[in-house]
Automatic annotation (TrEMBL):
Lineage top rank: taxon: Bacteria
Keyword Hydrolase part of the UniProt annotation: no
Locations listed in the record: Cell membrane
Source organism per UniProt: Hydrogenophaga intermedia
Protein name (database record): Polysaccharide biosynthesis protein
Amino acid sequence: MSFLRSVAVLVGGTALGHGITAAALPILSRLYSPADFSLLAVFASLCAMLSVAACLRFDIAIPLPQDDWQALSLLALSLASALLVSMGLLVFVLLAPDWILARLKVPSLRPYLWLIPVSVLLASVYSALQMWFVRQKSFSLLARSRVIQSTASAGVQVSFGLWTPNPAGLLIGHALNTGAACVVLGGRLLANTQQRAMLCGTTWKDLKYAWRAYERFPRYSTWEALCNSAAIQLPILLIAALAAPAEAGHLMLATYVMQAPMALIGSAVGQVYLSQAADEHRHGRLNTFTAGLLHGLVKTGAGPLLAVGILSPAAFSLVFGPQWARAGELVAWMTPWFIVQFLATPVSMALHVTGHQRAAFLMQLVSLGARVLTVWAAAGLAPQWMPETYALSGFAVYAAYLLLVLRCTQVDARAAGRIIRDNMPLLAMYALAAVAALWVLRALQST
């Protein structure tokens, strides 16, 4: 399957899945309050930080080996690690709920603490299974799984919201987002007799060999992933604890909206990129491959993100209700961050393909320190500006991360300059169209 066709298959499934989510958001914003979304923001942040490293990053190594036997050993390591981490987390949640809640300063999370280890297990198992099917280039199956997970999540959240006015539906729906996909992908894996036999026949010797061969992933990439996730999620926890109670909720909805184009194109491109990057690197073409991909990302995604950022301050109160106007303001602040993240994330796996796990870890460690310290400083100096400070710090760290990827893949400055120069007319067109639409929207609102 060609690169563009693979991307098209994944984008199609992701588009339908996010279409379902987008259709549900205006309903959810009226069924649940900003305070409910704030609780979801805390819950989702905790789950994201913990699940990203639960597989000890053996999951992202699954597409790299040349033979399936070693890849299945990595899959077994990933699943075993996810189970052990989740069981340890469950014990911790049951034994020390007061300690956890005292530090989070979110007492309303108490009834749902048990759901955190469940969500972590489902998300990490989904990540491992997803990478196995990325290796198999089963992109149509991955596309179907995304439609199913969006349908399950949105259905549960809307149903609970109509039934009972509490945030349980938001949290359970968030957990089922990956749970439904696990059923689909796990069922397909087990239905394949050969793959099931190979997975069940994995021995301790196979696991030890795979661990030694890919020990750089748990040694460096686990900490890199934790730092990367913590740099995004810890400031949200700080905002929820130290800013106005609803601020994290506004930030959550703003993030949902801005992540849609990234999930639509960026994640699909990133998975297909990872499935081919190892071969391109072996043949000495990774720099050209990466530069071409970045050119396509700027062309297809940067413009829509820019347009959403311009329109959002006026559009949010109309689409989601007047109580969400603040979220629209935050989208405008977050636009530069998400544009750079949209470019950096799909090609970031190149650092693992080229063996630069240590550099990736150090970069994420610096990013974590920078983002947490800037938000913490804002909490002391100007608490009302904590979300804006968070947005600006996101732009700075992802810009630095993109530069690191360009250097490690040997994409020179001239190639990067051509990407920007060639796409400037298109970006200007998107900006002008968004400004015109904003003027019409405000004129209609004033009448």
